[in-house]
Amino acid sequence: MTxxxxxxxxxxxxxxxxxxxxxxxxxxLKQLSTGNIFREYLGAYAKVRDLVKADHLWxxxxxxxxxxxxxxxxxxxxxxNVEVEAAILGFKAAQYVDRGKFVPDDITNSLFAATFxxxxxxxxxxxxxxxxxxxxxxLIDLLKQTGSRIDLVLVVDNDDEAIVARTIGRRICPNKSCxxxxxxxxxxxxxxxxxxxxxxxxxxxxxxxxxxxxxRLQEFQQKALPAIQVLTKAGLPSxxxxxxxxxxxxxxxxxxxxxxxxxxxx
Length: 266
Description:
It contains 9 helices and 9 strands. By secondary structure, the chain is α/β, with parallel strands linked by helices. The chain has a 5-stranded parallel sheet, sandwiched between helices. A two-stranded antiparallel ribbon has the order 3-4. Strands 7-8 form a two-stranded antiparallel ribbon. Helix 2 (34-48) packs across helix 4 and helix 3 crosses helix 4 (84-97). The chain starts with a strand and ends with a helix.
């Protein structure tokens, strides 16, 4: 069986990335992360931001008509050699991101769909999407439109208190071409606090504080759990793996993942 796409989900800090790494290597897939998608489109908008008079395009929490937005963006996007749709989607997302608000499902769905379609709709581990029941319903419809499929939903389980302890100790490589994830106890960087892959000094993410972690855990119960339920009710096969292993090594993680997913994907 040729694996097309896999969804990996679970509580924030449950240990998804090490499991994603196993799937990427075993099935020759690429990681499609919502965070990276947002950064890409926000970056497209940033290239034309100072060239667009956007005050009239967003007022009192409402966008102007699509025609008005397109008319404002088309000439400057073309002059800056930026895709018009990418700049517009980035503009819409920025109105929420810049204000510290959650981006609505319809905009998130549009960002994801544009990237997914451009890439042919297959060959991915989906990370961070879908996160709500509405996004799951949109994804199921998108799969029908593109003739693609999700072969498996992998849920990484972990206890809330273990997640808090684990996340506070997490460090990431800020090098965009690397992004390797470490943990001070379980998977430490070098003794000098540098990435073992590229040598960049690792950092603590600004949102890895206990207060923000507990907020994300609560959000999982309210939004992400219903999203998983929509996928499973649609008939997508799902398996669960433990985020906390008695022995945390690359070999142990690989063994636990493959033991769970191989029977479904064989």
